[in-house]
Specification:
Pfam families: CoA_trans. With about 230 residues, the protein is α/β, with parallel strands linked by helices. About 20% of the residues lie in helices and about 25% in strands.
């Protein structure tokens, strides 16, 4: 089945106001740049965004925060975005901060069809408020629910027209699980190839999970901050 669409605008044509979105990437690495820009153009409002990060002020999800299109963020790392901080402190933005391992596992469980799981992370803190707890082998655990989304939006290194995806390095941390946890999964790729050109043993997400795919353009591939000097 050919799942190719022309661009981000076509891929996002039915994203409504109030949608719950998962957006892949790790920090700014491997974020779906074309689709984020497409969401800005569409102007959809009241979004709930599930992402490892909140981008920076002028890039990534920071663009959607700037245009006030995000109502709620579920994230684990948000320390690089001054606009995020301003909206949070002013009460304009709902925020659910989730331990990074818990966030990754909640997404993974959704893709596996497991509704909930128990974790020790967050027990005895504000994160535990209102959640069921249970003791196992003398240790206390929180029950966390799986996270689902109306749309999972990811960026892969390579993909074929049937939706099979190959990621690179840290971009796999959240994107591979997110691609399995959305009701509709949209993938933008750096290289779009014909069926049979990807080594089956190297595929990270089978095409059965992907509904729409397109070849992205003009990737900036920014990083938050450089920590080593380039020679």
């Amino acid at each position: 089945m050919n799942k190719v669409v022309a661009n981000a605008d076509e891929a996002l044509h039915d994203v409504p106001d109030g949608a719950v979105l998962m957006l892949g990437g790790f920090g700014l690495s491997g974020i779906p740049e074309n689709c984020i820009n497409g969401l800005v153009r569409r102007g959809v409002k009241g979004l709930t965004c599930i992402s490892n990060n909140a981008g920076v002020d002028d890039f990534g999800l920071g663009l959607l925060l700037k245009t006030r299109q995000i109502k709620k963020m579920l994230s684990s790392y948000v320390g690089e975005n001054a606009e995020f901080e301003r909206q949070l402190l002013s009460g304009e933005l709902e925020v659910d901060l989730i331990p990074q391992g818990t966030l990754a596992t909640r997404i993974q469980m959704a893709g596996m069809g497991i509704p909930a799981f128990f974790t020790p992370a967050g027990y005895g803190t504000e994160i535990a408020e209102g959640k069921e707890t249970r003791e196992f082998n003398g240790k206390q655990y929180l029950m966390e629910l799986a996270l689902h989304a109306d749309f999972a939006i990811v960026k892969a290194w390579k993909g074929d027209t049937m939706g099979n995806l190959v990621f690179r390095k840290t971009t796999r941390n959240f994107s591979t699980s997110m691609a399995k946890a959305g009701r509709i999964t949209i993938a933008e790729v750096e290289q779009l190839v014909a069926p049979g050109e990807l080594d089956p043993d190297q595929i990270h997400v089978p095409g059965i999970y992907v509904h729409r795919i397109f070849q992205g353009v003009d990737y900036e591939k920014r990083i938050e901050r450089r920590t080593v000097k380039m020679g």
